Amino acid sequence: MATESCPILLFFQILALFHAKTTSRETRIFLTIFYTILAIFTLTIALVYKEMIFDVRTTLGAILDIIQLALPIATELIALTESFRKRPILGRIWQKFSEIQEHLEAIPGYSGDIFAKIHRRFLIKFLLFNGGATFIEIFILIRLREDYPWLRHRSAAFLPSLFSRSLIFLYILHVDILGGLSKQITEILQEISKGQKILPEDRKTIKICWKIHRELWLCETFLRKVFALSILGIIASYSILLTVDFYWNFKAFFRASTNYVLESSLCSTPFLLTLLPLVFTGEACKKRQKRIFVEILAIAPKSATMASFGLFLRNFTLSGLHRSTGIGAWEFLNVDLRLLSEIFQTIGIYLTIFIQFEITYYTMYSSSYVYVSQ
Question: What is the rounded average pLDDT of the residues 118-140?
Answer without folding.
Answer: 90
